[in-house]
Amino acid sequence: MIHIFKTNTFFKQVKNDLGATINSINNGNLLNFKIPLPPLDEQKKIAEILSTWDEAINLTINLIESKKQFKKALMQNLLTAKIRFPQFKDEWKETKLGKILKEHKIKSDNKSEVFSVSVHKGIINQIEHLGRSFSAEDTSNYNLVKPFDLVYTKSPTGDFPFGIIKQNLNPFNVIVSPLYGVFEPINKFLGTLLHYFFESSIRTNNYLKPIIQKGAKNTINISNDTFLSRSILVPINLDEQQKIAEVLMACDDEINLLNLKLENLKKQKQGLMQKLLKGEIRTCYVKKAM
């Protein structure tokens, strides 16, 4: 029965019987609704089929969480040299960020799209992910971000009170707010290591807190030169940089594929539920979720 209340047919009946602006349903309303029901045996089969999809969805959710925890532990060890690949013996060095990143100060090319920076999704298209653009009408003074550049937002968000730092993993140029700092890494692999290093709110806050001045209304006062002034521990061997970057990117690829699978399972279940409960397809023609 619970699945029926999630169908478009049920919502259409609510709208038709009670009006589009109704915000609650009482017992009297609910008891008056007419719900098409299949024979009892088929009801049981429908419940079993939908439960199979629920199991597949929950299994995928748990697998995603497990992969995220594995990646988190891997980052903690690989990015601090607690665990190293045995083929690499070179020392790691405390290196100023200014030796790894260079502010390039390139302005808009007047053809790249405006992107935002998200804690969880990185550098993303505003319209696709936020539903609208928050950019100014004139974007000629916006900063250009090339592939593999890093962006520092200088604005508090959630667990990142001093701002977030993300690498442009898109294979094309974008533009971002002129309030953001944009930096080119000396090589893309070191840039990717920094992307993952600053994925942790603890590491980001520990790096930024000593050099940040908070202004009125919680604004962040920090120059790009000051941002580059502190040091972090990094591998000096280019092959080791590449190996670490590739391993962590492979973790993200796995998580992204699982997220895509999860969305597909949810869509499959929703579409199947609509058709089964309306009798458009019968249980004998349905295969179980994979």
Automatic annotation (TrEMBL):
Entries under Gene3D superfamilies matching the protein: DNA methylase specificity domains
Family in the record: Belongs to the type-I restriction system S methylase family.
UniProt feature coiled coil, ranges: 248-282
Keyword annotations: Coiled coil, DNA-binding, Restriction system
GO molecular function, one term: DNA binding
PANTHER family: TYPE I RESTRICTION ENZYME HINDI SPECIFICITY SUBUNIT, TYPE-1 RESTRICTION ENZYME ECOKI SPECIFICITY PROTEIN
InterPro entries for this protein: Restrct_endonuc_typeI_TRD, Restrct_endonuc_typeI_TRD_sf, Type-I_RS_S_subunit
Example GO BP: DNA restriction-modification system
Organism: Campylobacter showae RM3277
Protein name: Type I restriction-modification enzyme, S subunit family protein
All copies of domain Type I restriction modification DNA specificity, residue ranges: 11-62, 91-265
Domain of life where this protein originates: Bacteria
